[in-house]
Amino acid sequence: HYVTGLMIRDYVAGLAPGSPMTYAEDYYLHYPKVAFGHWPPVFYLLQAGWTIPFGASRTSLMLLMAAVSAVIAVSLHRSVSRHYGMMAGVGAGILLLTVPLAQEFGRVVMADLPQALWSFLAVLCLAAYFERPRWWMSALFGLFAAAAILNKGTGVGLALVPIVMLLLTFRFKLMLKPSFWLSAVVVVGLAAPWYLLAPSAMHQSAVPLDFVVGGNEWRPRIRMDWIPEVGWWLIPLALLGVVRQVVQPLIHGRDAVGRDGETTRTRSVAPLWAAAAALIVSTLGFRAMTPITVDTRHVLPAVPALLMFAVAGGAWLLAVLRGPVARWRVAAAAVVIGFFVIGNVRALPQKQAYGFSGIAADLVADDSLDSSVFLVSADALGEGMFIAEVAMREDRPGHIVLRSSKVLSDSGWMGEGYSSRFDTAEQLMNYLDEIPVGILVLDDSQPRPQAHHRLLREVVTNYADRWEEAARYPAENRDGEMVVYRLEGHEGREVGPISLDFGPPRKRPAP
């Protein structure tokens, strides 16, 4: 995601130099980790909007993710404060920032945290519309829902939210208002063109993951693997909150204030709590029904709503305190929240380092390698890290960085249908020499290296007179080393055509 956002940033900052497709192809030639089209555009536009004024450094991107987390926390604070006071809202916001799942994806450049933001803002706008039907609130719901869909395909699950809210609030008459349908017009108008026209927007979007990697038939199933990552303590409190704010109003009714200020008794759920319940149902339901959402990160959009219900459940428990001890409710709540916050922070594992940062820093700093082609052979994660580290450190476009998984082998997006393009070390050496590849980075810490990696290892062994071992780096997250080799005599040679997945072979322009 970082390199794709970097490409959008550089294109806009360069005042759109030429055809966007030509620019993207040349960018991919240098940094082959661009997935614009396969993934929708909003996250990359968000990155570009941030990095143009604040820079594209690692610190800048982490501040962006922190800002997204802060906006979600403030929105949660305001929602909770309406019903339970400012201190409860502050506690909910702090808990959100420390939930392990939110912390984990607040320190990586991925679309899941912004997805939680767009989804939560969308349901808050819809709740406001249900409370007081105004066309612009419906339009805002459509705008944020479209942002979620164009941020990540899982956003289509928000289509369930209005349905669930109608069922819980019994406000079916809203369907007779043109403004109710305005949100659908906004979503279709903004999101449909992308998914209809972008060449790869639907690529493998509905392919069952376990079918791809294991050949098994996929079936819908409810997964509970996300619960430890949001906290076991959260679930019983949230269930109590659901009983208090959803079940009780449906069975026993609730007091509702009308537009005229009069209070009436109604058996329906308040719009805000109906929206929170709808967000949870849509998020977990979509994850259960689709095979592409197996990772626990896809539950992140439901976390703010779960915390809303957890606060409601906790407040209900504290309400049983009567008499003199009632004055200690706030203190008791603060102690409990502090306990959970400390537990969440202590439970978060240290972020893994892989060692590619040091390799990239050393190679980019070497002036003798300014025109050298780099080739990295690692797993998909490692290759992407190396490319991102190189791109982050140089004036772009700079080095041509090749991925062995793309130029030495063939496979699908998920790694299915793998086959090596070369059968012998001699064939592979000739290919590397023709380009020429000046720097070879081999991650020998891979537990199960693929055929092309084993063949590269054979090349540097058989042609030891051509490949000089330049450096060794420890693999910081597992046993083994990463070795850098330098091709003797490649300096000053013109870079030949490089065959990529799009169009004819591309040749690097003369300096």
Provide key terms for this protein.
five-stranded mixed β-sheet; 9 strands; 2 domains; 511 residues; disordered C terminus; 8% strand; 21 helices
Descriptive overview:
The protein is of the alpha/beta class and 511 residues long. It has 2 domains: 37-347, no CATH class; 353-487. It has 21 helices and 9 strands. The strands form 3 sheets. Strands 4-3-7-9-8 form a 5-stranded mixed β-sheet, with helices on both faces. It has a two-stranded antiparallel ribbon with strand order 1-2. Strands 5-6 form a two-stranded antiparallel sheet. A hairpin with a 6-residue loop joins β8 (467-474) and β9. α4 (58-84) packs parallel to α7 (112-131), α4 packs parallel to α15 (303-318) and α5 (86-98) runs parallel beside α16.
* Proportion of helical residues: 55-70%
- Biggest β-sheet: strands ordered side by side in the sheet: 4-3-7-9-8
List segments where confidence is low: pLDDT < 50 over at least 5 consecutive residues.
Answer: 203-216, 503-511
What letter string, H or E per element, gives the SSE order?
HHHHHHHHHHHHHEEHHHHEHEHEEHEHEE
Radius of gyration: 27 Å
Number of domains: 2
Q: Calculate the terminal CA-CA distance, rounded to whole Å.
A: 29 Å
Kindly name the structural category: alpha/beta
Number of discrete helical segments: 21
Overall number of strands: 9
Please report which band the strand proportion falls in: under 5%, 5-15%, 15-25%, 25-35%, 35-45% or over 45%: 5-15%
Please state the average pLDDT score.
85
Largest sheet: 5 strands, mixed
